[in-house]
Design brief:
- The structure is a homodimer of 626-residue chains.
- Chain A is an alpha/beta fold and 626 residues long.
- Helix content of chain A is 40%, strand content 18%.
- Chain A has 19 helices and 22 strands.
- In chain A, the strands form six sheets. Chain A has a seven-stranded mixed sheet with strand order 17-18-19-16-15-20-21, sandwiched between helices.
- In chain A, a hairpin with a 2-residue loop joins β6 and β7.
- The first copy, chain A, is globular and about 95 Å long.
- In chain A, 50% of the residues are buried.
- Chains A and B meet through α3, β9, α14, β21 and β22 of A and α3, β9, α14, β21 and β22 of B.
- β21 of chain A pairs parallel with β22 of chain B.
Chain lengths: 626, 626
C-alpha cells in the first residue's frame, strides 16, 4: 500500500514486542522507521494493564492469537474484519433483542437523551406538565375527592414554583376505601393469576406509553434527572411484568401434592385481603407502583399512601392503573402525613398486611403499632435503610472504581437506599484514588434536573438539606472534607446540596445512614480487613455492598464479613433491576422478601391446602389409568 | 354343583333385581326356592345407598358390568376371581410401596398394634422407660446441666407417678447457648442444603429406630395413645425428610438469574442466624422436632424451648439430633416456663427469628415483645389455635360422617389445634346423626393411653381439666349436653375428662377455642348456610374446616364462606401429613408459612443477590458458546 501511494511507512510497536514483524518488514522493504512505546507507570497500574493485555491477546478471536497459530492461514489472519462483520448483517440468532432478553417476560423500554429526538419529546412533555395545574388527594372508588385543606406541592429545585395541590385523606376516607377494597378483593382474588397478570401487563404498557410525561413529573416533583426518571419508569414497568409472570406461575391454579391413593391433595395461594402500601419519595413511581403491583398480583386490594413530598406522581400512577383496567375499588390513594394517615392505616382493623419502604425508625414504629392491634398477626414487609460500603483492593482498575463510586454515591443525589456511603480504600492505593475521585466529582454537573446535561439534582426538601448541612458541619469539625462539587448560580432557590467527599477514620464514626450526596472514605490496612469490615457489620444494616477487585477470594471474604442483601462485584451498587438483582436487605435494612425476586409474592398471600377423599365417591380413577 | 353334592339350591336376590338370572335357573333346574330381600329404610338413607350401588355396579371391574356386556364371554364372567389375583403375585409395577409413595422423599415407618408382635415390642419398651429415672434440663453444647431447682414431671393419667425431673434454664444458660449457637451457625450455613439434609435424614432414621421407646415416653409424659404416638413419631420423621428435601432443592447452591451479557447474577438463600423454637405439649415430639428441623434446614442454629409439661420427650429428641450427627452447639434445649425462659428468649438480642406453636394469646404477647426489641425486625412464625367447623349436608353418608367426627373431635382427647369443635348438621338429618354420634361415643374406650385398647386418653394437666369442667358447667347451664363418654374406675388419679357432645345454637356461643374433648353441634337451615357460616367466620380463626357432602358445589361454597388454611372434604379434619396436607391457618390461627409445605423454609432464611460484572475481567465467555 505504501509503495502504491508513495507514502512512507512508520512502524509502531511496544518496547519489547513486535520484533519478528519488524524483521519481516525490514526484509521486505529495507530499513523502516520505528516508533517504540515504553509504558510508564506505577506498580499499582501494572497488574490491571497486564491482565487486560493477557485477556485481549489470549482470546480466541484475537488477532495475535490467530497470528501465532501456524494452522491459521495468512489469508484468514489478514482478512478484513469489517467485511467479516458485514457478511453477517443480521442479529446472531441466539442473541435476543433487549426487549426479549429476559425470556420469561418483556423488558421495559428506555430513552436515549444523547439523541435530539428524545430530548425534544422530553421538552414537549415538560412544557405540557408545566402548563397544567396538578391535583392530588384521596382517590376512592376511582373518584378524586376535592379537599378543603389542600396544601401546595413545590419543586425541590425551585421552591417558588408550585406544581399543584394535595389534600390529606381523612379517617372517613380510609374507612370508605377499606370497605370498598374488601368487597372488591373477593372477585379479584378469584380471578386468578392469569387474569390479574393481564391487568398488570396493561399497566406496564401504560407506563411506557406515558414515559415522557412521567419523566417530566418526576423531575419537577422529585428532582429526578432525566436518566433517573427513565430508570424509575422502567423499574415500575418491570415490576408490573415480573409480578404478572409470578402471578401466572404461582397463582394460576392449585398445585397437586403427592398423597395416598383415594385422596386429591392440592395447595392454592390466595390473597390475604386489603394491603396498606406505604412508599417513599425517593422512588415515588417505581416503589409506589411496585408495592401495589405485588399486592395486587397476589390477589389483594390496596390502600396506597404515597410520601408527603410526592403525591402528584402517585395520583398519576393510580390513574394509569385504572386506565389499565383495574377495578377502581381495588386501589385507593390515601395521601397524607405518616403520623396521621400512616398511623390510621396501620391501626385499621380492616388492613390485612402492610408493605412499607422507608426509614428504619419508621419501620419500627409501624411494627409496634401492628403488634398492638388486637386480632390476627398480619404480614409486615419492610424495606428500610442501609449503611452501604464498598471495598476496593489494589488489584482493581482505578478508572472503573471511580466511575462506579461516583455513580453509586451521587447518582440520584445519593438519595437511594442502595447508595454508597462508605468507600474502603487500601492505604497503598488511597491517595491516587482520592485524587481521581476529586477530579471526577469536579466534572459532575449539579443543577436543574430537567436539563439533560445535569448529573446531580437537588435533595428532596428543606429537612433533608438541613440534616446534610448539620452532618457536613460535624465532618468539618472532626473529620476531613476531601472535595465538594460546585453549585450553579441561583442554587438557593431550592434544595441543592453540594455533593461532598469526606474522609473518616472508621465506620464507628457513622451512627446511622446519612441520606444524601455525602461519600465517606475510610483507608484500611489489607492485613486488618476483618477488623475493618466487622466495624461496618456492627452497625447492624445489611443492604448493599460493593467490591472492586480482580481477586475472587477477596470478594468472597468481604461478602462473608459484611452482611448485605445485595452484593455487587466490579460495578456500581445502585440500580438493581427487577428479576436480575432482586432487591432488599437484612438486619436493620429490611424484613424480606426481596422486591423483584422469585419469592416476592409469597408474603402477600396465604396458603390453602385442600384434601378431598375421593374414595368416598367410589374410588380413585387414577388407579384405572396405571 | 348342587346336583353333584345332592343339596338344595336357594336363590337369593334383591326385590326387583336378578329376575333374568332366576328365569335361566328355572329353565335349567325347574322350580327353585327364592328368597327376595326388600331394603327398608328412611329417605335419608336412600341416596347414599343408591349411589354406592350405582358406583359398584357401574365400575368397569364389576361383575354386573361384565355380565351385562355381550362382548364379554361367559368364561370370563364366570372366571374365579381368586385365581385372577393369584396370577399376579407381585405388586403392580406402577404402584409404589408405601415407603416410596412420595417419590421425592422416603415415607416414614409405622406400627400395627393389632399385631401381637408390635404390642409386645411396645410392652418391653414401656417397662424399660418405667424402670428409668428420666432427667431434663438445659442442654448446652451437648451437656445436660444438672439443676438445683429440679421439678418433678408427672404422668397425666396418674399424677402420683413421677416420671423424672426437669430444671429450668437460667438467663446465663440462655446467653451461653446463644453464643455457642451463633458461632456454630456460620459453618452450618456454609455447609449448604445437601450437607444439612444428610443430618436431618439421619435424624429421621434415628426417630424410627427409637420408635417403641418414643411411643412409651409419649404415652407416659403426654398421655398419648399408642396410635397417636406412632403418628407423632412418623410426623417428626416426615418433617426431617421433607425439610431435607427442601434444603437440597432451595439451599443447594445459587440460582442463576437471567441478566444482561457481561454480568453473572445469582440468588442465594442462607440462614438468618439463631432461631428460638417454642413448641407446645400437644405434639411434644412432632412439632418440637419439626420446628427445629425447619430452622436447621434453612441454615440456622436453634434454642428450643419445649412446653413446661413435656420436657422429657424434648430432651430425648435433642439427644437423637446429636446422635444423628448434629454439632451440639447448633441445638440447645432451654426448658422452662413461658413467662421466664420464653420471655428471655424472645427479648434476647442474639435471637434472629422465632418459630412458635401454641395459643393465640401467647403469640400476640411474643409479637409485642419482638416489636419492642431495639434493632432489626425479625421473622415471627406463629401457628396458633382454631375454632374448627365441619359442615354436613343431607347427601353425605351418615356412617362416614360419624367415624370422621368422632376421630376429628376426640382423637388425641381433642387436644389438636386441628380438632373439630363445631359440627354443623342440617335440620333434616340432625336427629339421626346425633343418635349415631351418641352410639359411637359410647363405644369409645377412655382410659390408660398405654393400653392398646384405649381410644381416648387424659387431658394434659389440672389446668386443662379445670378449664373443660368450667366450660361443661356453662354448657349444662345454657346449652344442651347430648352425650358424655364413660370414664373408667380410678379416673381421678389423673386428668381424664369424659368426652362430651353438646348442642349450642350458633358459633356466637363460643368466644374462643375450647381445647379438649368437647364437640359442639349446631343445627342449621340449608337455605341459611351463608348466615350460619358467616357467624363462624366472624370468630376470626382460620385453621381447619371439614365438609361432608357428595355435592362439589356445596364443598366449594363452604370453603368460600369459612376461612381455613386446611380444608378437608369427606374425611376427618385431623392428621395432616407433611408434604401432603401442608399445615397452618390464617387470621387468628397463624401467620404462615404452612409447616410441611413447599414454602416452609423461606421465612427461616434470608436472600442474598450477587451481581458480578464479569466483563471487568475481560468479557463474557457465554458469548463464545452461543
Amino acid at each position: 500500500m505504501a509503495s502504491e501511494r508513495s507514502v512512507k511507512i512508520e512502524f509502531q510497536r511496544l518496547h519489547g514486542m513486535g520484533e519478528a514483524l519488524y524483521d519481516a518488514a525490514h526484509d521486505a522493504f529495507g530499513p523502516v522507521t520505528v516508533r517504540a512505546y515504553a509504558p510508564v507507570g506505577g506498580h499499582e497500574d501494572l497488574l490491571p494493564y497486564l491482565v487486560r493485555r493477557l485477556l485481549e491477546n489470549g482470546a480466541n478471536s484475537s488477532f495475535v492469537h490467530a497470528l501465532l497459530d501456524e494452522r491459521v492461514p495468512a489469508s484468514a489472519v489478514a482478512a478484513d474484519p469489517i467485511s467479516a462483520v458485514e457478511a453477517h448483517p443480521d442479529r446472531h440468532a441466539k442473541i435476543p433483542t433487549p426487549k426479549d432478553m429476559y425470556m420469561d417476560r418483556q423488558n421495559s423500554l428506555g430513552r436515549d437523551y444523547s439523541q435530539a429526538a428524545d430530548r425534544e419529546r422530553h421538552a414537549v412533555a415538560l412544557q405540557k406538565v408545566d402548563s397544567e395545574t396538578l391535583t392530588a388527594g384521596p382517590i376512592i372508588g376511582g373518584k378524586l375527592k376535592a379537599g378543603t385543606n389542600a396544601q401546595p406541592v413545590t419543586n425541590p429545585f425551585d421552591t417558588t414554583r408550585v406544581l399543584g395541590h394535595v389534600s390529606e385523606a381523612t379517617e372517613a376516607d380510609i374507612d370508605a376505601a377499606v370497605d370498598a377494597a374488601a368487597r372488591a378483593q373477593i372477585a379479584w382474588d378469584r380471578k386468578g393469576g392469569a387474569g390479574r397478570g393481564a391487568v398488570l401487563r396493561a399497566m406496564a404498557d401504560a407506563l411506557e406509553a406515558n414515559m415522557d410525561r412521567l419523566v417530566a413529573l418526576l423531575s419537577r416533583e422529585a428532582g429526578k434527572t432525566l436518566n433517573d426518571g427513565v430508570a424509575e419508569i422502567r423499574e415500575a414497568a418491570d415490576f408490573c411484568r415480573y409480578y404478572a409472570m409470578l402471578a401466572e406461575r404461582d397463582f394460576g391454579g392449585p398445585t397437586e401434592l403427592k398423597g395416598p391413593v383415594g385422596e386429591i391433595n392440592q395447595l392454592v395461594l390466595h390473597g390475604r385481603g386489603v394491603f396498606a402500601c406505604i412508599s417513599p419519595w425517593n422512588f415515588p413511581l417505581a416503589i409506589f407502583t411496585g408495592q401495589i403491583a405485588a399486592a395486587l398480583a397476589a390477589g389483594n386490594a390496596v390502600l396506597a399512601k404515597p410520601a408527603e413530598q410526592t403525591p402528584l406522581i402517585a395520583a398519576e400512577a393510580v390513574r394509569l392503573y385504572y386506565k389499565a383496567g383495574l377495578d377502581p375499588d381495588l386501589l385507593a390513594l390515601v395521601p397524607g402525613r405518616g403520623e396521621t394517615v400512616g398511623a390510621k392505616l396501620v391501626s385499621h382493623p380492616g388492613i390485612d398486611g402492610v408493605a412499607f419502604t422507608g426509614g428504619t425508625d419508621t419501620a419500627n414504629l409501624i411494627n409496634r403499632s401492628l403488634a398492638a392491634r388486637p386480632g390476627a398477626i398480619i404480614p409486615f414487609i419492610a424495606e428500610t435503610g442501609g449503611l452501604n460500603g464498598m471495598f476496593v483492593d489494589t488489584t482493581a482498575l482505578k478508572e472503573q472504581i471511580i466511575d462506579d463510586v461516583i455513580l453509586s454515591a451521587f447518582g440520584s443525589s445519593g438519595q437511594r437506599c442502595s447508595a454508597l456511603r462508605l468507600l474502603y480504600v487500601p492505604h497503598d492505593a488511597a491517595d491516587a484514588l482520592i485524587e481521581g475521585l476529586k477530579g471526577a466529582l469536579a466534572a459532575q454537573v449539579v443543577g436543574d434536573p430537567t436539563d439533560p446535561a445535569t448529573d446531580i439534582g437537588p435533595v428532596i426538601d428543606a429537612d433533608a438539606r438541613a440534616m446534610l448541612e448539620a452532618h457536613l458541619k460535624r465532618l468539618e469539625g472532626d473529620a476531613k472534607i476531601i472535595a465538594r462539587a460546585e453549585l450553579p448560580a441561583g442554587a438557593d432557590k431550592g434544595h441543592l446540596f453540594a455533593p461532598t467527599i469526606a474522609e473518616i477514620p472508621t465506620a464507628d464514626y457513622l451512627e446511622r445512614e446519612v441520606f444524601g450526596p455525602i461519600l465517606h472514605v475510610c483507608r484500611y490496612e489489607p492485613s486488618k480487613l476483618k477488623e475493618t469490615a466487622s466495624k461496618l457489620a456492627a452497625r447492624g444494616y445489611g443492604l448493599t455492598l460493593g467490591v472492586h477487585s480482580r481477586i475472587e477470594a477477596f470478594a468472597e471474604e468481604v461478602a462473608r464479613l459484611v452482611p448485605a442483601g445485595n452484593v455487587y462485584i466490579n460495578r456500581s451498587i445502585i440500580g438493581a433491576v427487577v428479576g436480575v438483582q432482586p432487591f432488599g436487605g437484612e438486619g436493620l435494612s429490611g424484613t424480606g422478601p426481596k422486591a423483584g425476586g422469585p419469592y416476592s409474592l409469597i408474603r402477600y398471600a396465604a396458603e390453602k391446602a385442600i384434601s378431598n377423599n375421593i374414595s368416598a365417591q367410589g374410588g380413585d380413577p387414577a388407579l384405572l389409568n396405571l
